[in-house]
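Can't paste images in this forum, so I'm doing it all in text. The chain is below; anyone willing to post the predicted structure tokens underneath?
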Amino acid sequence: MAAALLANTLYSIGFVLEKRALTSLPEVSIRQPARLLRLVLGSPLWIGGSLALAAGFGAQLVVYRTLPIAAAQGIFVSGLVLLVLLSARLLGEETTGRERYALGAILGALLMVVLSLDESADAVSQAAPYPLILLVCVPSLAAGVWLYGSAERRSRHRHRLPTTGVEYGVAVGLLYGVSSLAIKGVSTRLTSSGLGTAVVDVLRSPYPYLLLFTGAFGLVMSQAALQRCRASLIVPVCTTVTCLFTAVLGTLSFGETLPHDPLRLALRLAGTLLAVSVLLSMPRHDQQADLQPPIGAKELTPP
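Text version of the structure:
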């Protein structure tokens, strides 16, 4: 639990620092990845945010070695509260009433998942078949990249309403979901006796290569999306998709059983369904941006 809360804190701080750094940089695009990397690596604030995210990655490894996948994801969602508070304080981002209700519902879903935990019955898996992992991860990566590209094409339409970033968040969330499964896989390989044996086991698995792919594409895609959209909305959407993806497909892939107690099972399933419902109900267009006239537009006075 302590490692999960630490990971939440590090991830929230990392995203906020990166967002603040991106607001002072020229516009970045996934079509120019080399330029994007050159710009962000020249920002000390962005580097500080990325180091916080890397530390959160280390804490996440500890979590996956001690908690079932579904339980860990439920706790990770709690970081959304800290993220919203930091976004309001450091970025000046204000959430709408509908978005605040949605975050409250997500916290309710978190509470259901936490109450479904049973330390004496929940078992932490140790391995998963590599073909099954690839069968789950490869189509998910393709879907995430396609969805992001589709959102990019629609955003270039001249008369399109300003987007909240939900589509970007879902796309990046799919990539981070695959990354989360890879982190879980690496944590299972680290149980081997001896550091050398563990390293060899990890390199023989598909997990480090999935991490490289999701790290490269996730970095470029997330930074471009984070610069255009509010962190207080895009990151919760991304986090929700990642947690649901990992909790559902990770539990099935790694063979972790659901609670046998009917009440605990109902709580876990209800929490998952509630989080999905909240995600589907999130607004697709940014009402805050709609209130401001386009740059250079003239106010029309009725005759």
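Residues 4 and 129 are 26 Å apart (CA to CA). The chain has 13 helices and no strands.
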